[in-house]
Design goal:
This protein is of the alpha/beta class. It has one domain: 3-Layer(aba) Sandwich (Arginase, Chain A), CATH 3.40.800. It has nine helices and nine strands. Helix 8 links the parallel strand 8 and strand 9. The chain is globular and about 50 Å long.
Length: 302
């Protein structure tokens, strides 16, 4: 099985990067998906991955918890081919990439979008490997059956993912949600989806323990975990560079802690909805770079 990537990588990830020819040696894989045709908000997410590559030489090599990633081998495989005017072809391309990577390595896969519509084909590509638990950090639920007259927009990505045989709604956890659609509320209640809204987290005496315990309930029922981070889960004060910001969100520090508190190995993770043209002084890109340090450090220890 083979797959052709667009090799337009820029940075070195602090000297950790190895070439795609060394895929089997990698401790983590990074791929870009610069696709934004599934968004209902302002554009710009297609610029995220290459903007990140341009500054990735500045990545911190020691996490906030003192875990060094200097001995990790990070393989930036390049960009998955996308087709702005053909969403179906793009979904097929993303799915094929995930299947290819899963067939070549057991290293965790990190995908940088792109809008949140890319997550469904990512999960679909992972699904042949076993049952999947999903942790979904987002201001929105993304459970609409249709948005923009399409069942595959960024507002329907989790809805489509739950329809996969590998995903049971009871094995899905929404974290930090605060933009509530009536249709989605009915679906959450009907399907038994786990949800920790931002309000619930703020009202809890120990929100970190709450997140950890909820994920702990899912662990025995799944083979893998997929973590999706929509950058708008953060309050716009911390991540202004996104097309659909919602006030009243979590802090960067809180998100980092929740990631560390996931008591399971992460098979794949994505960071989506980052829009450099909407950013202020590069704040959001720097947040993503800091998140990558924490994610890689956690993956090193899992």
């Amino acid at each position: 099985m083979s797959f052709q990537y667009k090799q337009d990588r820029y940075g070195t990830y602090g000297g950790l990067s190895i070439g795609p020819d060394n895929l089997v040696e990698a401790d983590a894989i990074i791929q870009g998906v610069p696709f934004e045709s599934g968004t209902s908000g302002k554009k710009g997410t297609s610029f995220a991955i290459d903007s990140l590559r341009q500054i990735c030489g500045d990545i911190q090599l020691i996490s906030r918890r003192g875990v060094s990633i200097t001995d990790m081998k990070i393989c930036d495989i390049g960009n998955v081919p996308v087709f702005p005017l053909d969403s179906e072809a793009t979904r097929n391309s993303i799915e094929k990439s995930m299947k290819f990577l899963c067939s070549k390595t057991s290293a965790p896969i990190i995908t940088i979008g792109g809008d949140h519509s890319i997550t469904y084909p990512e999960i679909k590509g992972l699904s042949p490997t076993g049952t999947i638990g999903i942790v979904w950090f987002d201001a929105h639920r993304d459970l609409l059956n249709e948005m923009l007259s399409s069942p595959f927009s960024h507002g329907s990505s989790l809805r489509r993912s739950i329809e996969l045989d590998a995903v049971d709604p009871r094995n899905v956890l929404l974290v930090g949600t605060r933009y509530i659609e009536p249709e989605e509320q009915e679906f959450v209640d009907k399907e038994g989806i786990n949800e920790l809204t931002q309000a619930k987290l703020e009202d809890a005496e120990n929100p970190r323990k709450l997140v950890k315990n909820k994920i702990g309930e899912i662990i025995p029922r799944v083979d893998h975990f997929f973590v999706s981070i929509d950058i708008d889960c953060l309050d716009p004060a911390y991540a202004p560079g996104t097309g659909t910001p919602v006030g009243g969100g979590m802090t960067t520090s809180q998100l980092m802690n929740y990631i560390w508190d996931i008591p399971a190995s992460i098979r794949a993770l994505d960071i989506v909805e980052v829009s450099p043209p909407l950013d202020v002084s590069g704040i959001t890109l720097k947040v993503v770079l800091a998140l990558l340090t924490e994610v890689l450090a956690k993956m090193k220890l899992q």
